[in-house]
Amino acid sequence: MSGIQQKVVVITGASSGIGEATAMHLARHGARVVVGARRTDRLEKLVSAIRAGGGTAEYQAVDVTKREQVEALVRLAKAKFGRVDVVVNNAGIMPLSPLEALKVDEWDRMIDVNIKGLLYGIAAGMPVFKEQKAGHFVNVSSIGGHFVVPTAAVYCATKFAVRAISDGLRQESRDVRVTIISPGVVESELADTITDEGAKKAMDEFRANAIPPEAIARAILFAIEQPADVSVSEIIVRPTGGA
Ligand code: NDP
């Protein structure tokens, strides 16, 4: 299957920001989207909006730190539409803080959501992709997967990990496409998870020059709609003149 029309796309973390904008954008271009996150009230509104625009969408509650819930989301897509073309591993959190603040619970959560959640997405999609002899993982990393800044050591480590896992997967795969999406600063709710006052203040300034999440949605569409023999390995999208 080539292009975007009728492709079945599973998206994690679609209740806000980049995931939500991507679901809207892909559905508007003819994809059938299956969205997951924990806030089902948001997902319900998103799916209603997509359907009101003539698109096709389903949703299910998913905590990506629970392997069986990620598998259930992919199973829902397969049951509804008979195939799964793309899994967008987008769910992520960013509670920044200096390491010496020892917010160990937040380190654990970032590792659980940003790394293990992504691995569970791969584990859920892989058997379907192998059976189909085709599939596409779109893994959302960050410019923080390219360099480290103070207060972001653990977050950046998780985003470096997303790029490492994705690159390994790409090298091992014959039929499966793998795309890393590395956004710069994007308008979203991501900074709301920061509890450290200093990091929050610094991030407010850093995020002043943000681009809308639709900019990332367009990059994801570009990667998906390429012909099957073309694999877009990574796209970095930054605000003009910013990080
Ligand atoms: P948002 O906070 O707006 O969106 C994050 C999404 O992840 C939400 O839908 C949230 O849904 C979901 N999520 C968080 N925890 C879980 C969980 N345990 N299980 C399932 N879903 C979860 O931020 P963004 O849209 O910005 O973030 C999307 C991705 O983009 C992240 O991976 C982020 O690291 C990355 N990114 C963002 C950048 C930015 O500047 N905004 C820059 C670079 C990368 P819910 O709470 O309902 O579960």
UniProtKB/TrEMBL annotation:
GO terms for molecular function: oxidoreductase activity, acting on the CH-OH group of donors, NAD or NADP as acceptor. Belongs to the short-chain dehydrogenases/reductases (SDR) family. Keywords: Oxidoreductase. Pfam families: adh_short. It comes from Singulisphaera acidiphila (strain ATCC BAA-1392 / DSM 18658 / VKM B-2454 / MOB10). Signal peptide: none annotated. This is Short-chain alcohol dehydrogenase. InterPro entries: KR_dom, NAD(P)-bd_dom_sf, Sc_DH/Rdtase_CS, SDR_fam. The keyword Oxidoreductase applies. Residues 7-189 form the Ketoreductase domain.
